[in-house]
Structures are given as C-alpha cells and as structure tokens.
Amino acid sequence: MSEKVVFVDRRGTDCGKWDDLTPKFGEEGLIAMWVADMDFKVPQSVIDAEKKYLEMGAFGYYRARDSYYNAFIAWEKKYHNYDVKREWIRFAPGVVPAINWFLQIKTQPGDAVIVMTPVYYPFMDAVNNNGRKLVTSELINTNGVYTIDFSDFEKKIVDNNVKVFVMSSPHNPVGRVWTREELKKVMEICKKHNVFVISDEIHHDLINKGFEQITTATVGDYDDMLVTVTAASKTFNLAACQNSFVVIPDEELRRRYDEYTNQIRVTSGTPFGYLAVEAAYTGGREWLEEVMDIIYSNADYVTQTLTKELPGVKVSPLEGTYLLWIDFSAYLKADEIKDFMQKKCKLAFDYGDWFGGEKFGTFVRMNLATSREIVEKAVSAIVENLKK
Ligand SMILES: Cc1ncc(COP(=O)(O)O)c(C=O)c1O
Predict the structure, then answer these.
(1) Confidence class of residue 277 from pLDDT cuts 50, 70 and 90?
(2) By alpha-carbon position, which residue is closest to atom 7 of ligand 1?
(3) Where are the domains of the chain?
(4) Which CATH class is domain 49-283?
(5) Contact 93/123 with Cβ under 8 angstroms?
(6) pTM higher than 0.85, yes or no?
(7) Which terminus of the chain has fewer Cβ atoms in its 10 Å neighbourhood, N or C?
C-alpha cells in the first residue's frame, strides 16, 4: 500500500513560506505560492527516525553513520545511475552555501562567473556577494519552451574570461530537464575554455513522467572540472534539516574543499539532518511517487485551466521541479503584475524579475507542492480578476 501524503496547514508554525508573507510582501492575508518547499508532512520513515532520537534524549556531539552515506550512494545508483564513491562525499548545510564556498575556492575577486537566466536568484547573489563579476547568458524562449543559446554561452565565456559556470539541473525556474545532448554540449564548451562547473541538482528527484534526469557527471569524463551539489531537501521537504551532499570525484579538489571547510569550521551537521536524510532515502520512495503525482497533476490542472480561460497566458511545460513558470505578458505589464497578484488576487509568488531582471517582469513562478484546493483558489483568483 502506498503511503498517503498529508497536507499540513503550516500557518503559525514559524515557517518562512506562510508566516513571513506580510513582512516579505507587505500585504495581509495572501496565499503563499512562492518559495520552494512543500506543504506536505514528510515521509513517516523520517518522523519515526526523528522521534526515536528525540525520545533517546541526549543531544551531544554526533557523527554521521555509514548507513547515511550508504543510503545516498544506493539512491544515486538506483534512481540516477550515478556511481558515487564514499570518499567523494562531503557535507554542506545547504546547496547554496556550497555554491558560495566553491566560488571562493575556484575564483578570485573580480573573476567572471556565468549563469543562464532566468535562474534561481541565489546563484546571482552568490556571484555578487562574493565580489565576482556576474555574466548572464539568456535561455531562448520559444513559446514558453526554453533552450540553451550555446553560441551566446560560449561567446560570453570567451569575451569575459569566465572561470565558473553555475548550472541548475533541472532548471529552476523554467522547469527544463536538460537532455544528455544539451549537457554534453555545455560541458564540452566549458572544458574547451577551462570553465569549472558547479552542477546544482537539488531538484533531480522531481521529474515529470516521460523525462529522464541525467546527472551531469555521467555524461563524460569531467572529474577535474565539475562538482555536483545535491540534497534530499527538495525531494522530501527537509530544507530545515540543513543537510546537503557535495560530490567531489577529483582528489585535489576534495583537498581544497576540506581545507576551506576546515578554515570556516563547517564540516558536519546535526543528527536531525543526517537521520532525516537517511530515513527518507531508505523509506520515502512511495511517499515521493505520491507527491510527484500530486505535483504533476497540479501542473496539468493549472496549465489546462489557464490556457483555456486565458489563451494569452504562456505556461512553460513542467518537465522537472515543482515550480511552474508562467508568462502573463499578454495581459499585464511588468509594473502591474505585483499589484495585480497581491492586491486583486491576494497571492504571493516569486516574481519573474527576481530571476534575472526586468525583462522577466511579466512572469511569476508558482509553487505546486501544495494541496489542489490551494492551487484551485490561486488559479480561480487569477482567472476571475483578469477577466474583469
Ligand atoms: C536550484 C536550487 N538550488 C538550491 C536551492 C536551495 O538550496 P539549500 O536550501 O540547500 O541551500 C534551491 C531552493 O529552492 C534551488 O531551487
């Protein structure tokens, strides 16, 4: 019997998504369709593991057990065909910290770092906050379907002497699951120009039917120019556990990562993180299958309703992630969208301009990892108010 996924009303639980709405958006009573976490209770296996540890009751220093590493290795092998060796695995409290640290390790202040826009905004913050030079290559948008502009990507790398590429695979926010050919082409361009690649694969378990997520590290021999950063946090709604994987096949790069994390003294996490991740990988697969059914059925519902009721709206096909990228340019100008969504519809989204500037200002990113009821409310509010 499959595990039933349970919706949680998280209001009043000190969660960022619902309880930070008013300070973040300056408006009372909004429905939260923003920030990438789920309104679902985690798998029962995770709750059981945490309960056991809580009831044991002594929270002194902890060491991650072998079964934690083995659970990750088995998961990557089974679901991603990626053979991770135990000695390649390092800890980070989040994927975003790991990206920031790799910018420190692999670049000097002023060095150029490239991203493909629109993109998850902490990539750009990481570049800017570390005093590196942000270079962007815009994805090609063909009727809502995004592809890589390889010639622009290569030209920007050459023109700016780019040192690092930060990649989102699958791509947040446009929902693309990159094909093997696309990944191969990107990696060959980076190899040719000596560009180090940080492959952020945090959404790699959330893949729609009919698509295959390819681990970048498996498309060729790129060990000395690639690090994979991933986690169970998006997959199983564990972001607060702050436990992520940094996979570093290259020995010299591991030495530099260890040196860096020793300097800042962040080399391990809490038991609550390790135990949650292990329990999710070993006992959470059925839960995940059910969650994916909910998410991708929500995506079908939103896409069908919006395109039927408002034919000008362009919804990008959701190949992976639970974040739907929607263009309202046929109905709203960039400077109207926030007022419309918040004041008229009472909805809170990640707005398009957060992902790379004003040119994406007519888009919103909708989080679908919630109940159908909430998704329906959001869609109805948009349809009714736009039709007025
Ligand atoms: C592409 C991507 N990377 C990283 C993160 C967050 O990673 P962490 O919470 O592990 O720092 C997110 C969260 O939405 C994301 O979409």
Answers:
(1) very high
(2) 95
(3) 16-42+286-387, 49-283
(4) alpha beta
(5) no
(6) yes
(7) N
